Amino acid sequence: MARIFIALTFDDEVIKECARIQEILGSWKFNGKLIELENLHLTLKFLGEIDENKLSEVKEALKTIKENSFECKLDHSGLFSVHGNPKITWLKLNGKGIFDLQKKIDEVLESSFKKEERFMSHLTIARIKYVNDKAGFKKYVENIGVKEVSFKIKSFQLIKSELKPSGPVYNIVEEYSLLE
Questions:
Q1: pTM of the entire structure?
Q2: Which candidate in 4, 9, 25, 41 is catalytic?
Q3: CA torsion, points 14, 126, 116, 38, in degrees to nearest 10?
Q4: Catalytic position from the list 122, 125, 126, 161
């Protein structure tokens, strides 16, 4: 069994801006963790624990996707909270192509996996366990000036996640090119 998800990964310019935002975010005291730069991604679909046969089916299904490459850009920062407690700090990614690709992935996998109910195009940059001033932190995060970095998505990845005591380790199982 392998823990699998489908994602977009990013070029150096995007990673550099994420690192800058993480540095700003890190100046606020909170218990939690900044996501390792090498692990930054946008999850298009989480498949969970699947066996080798199911993984082979997924690989074949994803090969049938014939979507065009597309432009997108970093937009603003925000939080996901549970009962008023901040849990995830994210950067929004804009680009119609992200939603088109995610929908196509859902379509080609619908016989084996439930469709996403609430897909949001975001890049997780930190996981928050506890912050003392919740309202202040929310305002701080929402007012971080994110540079609108534009970039082109030319492929998507099937990724295996191994959970280790030091944190997750991601390995690309297969990469799928988009049409130029």
A1: 0.93
A2: 41
A3: 50
A4: 122
| Residue pair 70/179 in contact by the 8 Å Cβ criterion | no
Q: Which amino acid is at 117?
A: E
DSSP characters for 24-87? HHTTS--EEEEPPGGG--EEEEEEEEE-HHHHHHHHHHHHT--PBPEEEEEEEEEEEEETTEEE
Closest C-alpha among 77, 55, 90 to residue 143: 77
Q: Enumerate the domain spans of the chain.
A: 2-177
Does domain 2-177 bear CATH number 3.40.720.10?
no
In this structure, what token pair is assigned to residue 124? Answer: 């997780």
The DSSP code for 11 is -
Most distant CA pair in the chain, distance: 49
Residue type at 151 in one-letter notation: F
Handedness of CA 135, 116, 53, 42 (dihedral sign): negative
76 part of the active site: no
* pLDDT value of residue 157: 98
**Mean pLDDT across 155-164:** 96
